[in-house]
Amino acid sequence: MNFMPASLRCTAITLAVALALQPALQAQSMDTGLEEIVVTAQKREQRLIDVPIAVTALAGDALERRGITDVQGLEGFTPNLQISPTPGNSSAAQIAIRGSVTANPALTWEPAVGIYVDGVYVGKTQGALFDLIEIDRIEVLRGPQGTLWGRNTLAGAFNIVTRKPSGEAGGNATISFGNFSAVGGKVSIDLPKIGAANVNLALAAQRRDGWVNNRAGNLPTPPGRAASTSELNDLDSKSARLAVDLPVNDSFSIAYRGDYNDIDQSASHSQLYRALLPFLAPYVSRERQSRATVDGPSFERSRTQGHSLTLEWQVGDADVLRSITAQRQLTWEDGLDLDGSPLDIAHTQRLSDYDSLSQELQWVGSRGRLSYVAGLYYFEDDGFTDNPQAFFVEFGPAVGVRFKSQYGFETRATALFGQLDYALSDQFSVTAGLRYTDEDKSIARCAGLVGIFDYVPCITRAKTSFSDTTPLAVLTWKPRDSFSAYLKYAEGFKSGGFNGEAGDPANPIPVNIAQVQTPYLPESLQSTELGAKWLFADNRGYANVALFHTDSQDMQLSIFEARGAANSSIRNAGEATVKGLEVELGWQMAQGTRLQFALGKMDGEFDRYVDRGVEVSFNRALTHLPETTLSASLDAAIGTLFGAEARLLLDASYIDEYTLYAYPLATLPSTDPASVGSALANDTRVPGHGLLNARLSLDGVEIGGTRLDVALWSRNLADKEYIQNMIDFGPGFGSLTQVYFGTPRTWGIELTSRW
Question: Is residue 202 predicted with pLDDT exceeding 80?
Answer without folding.
Answer: yes
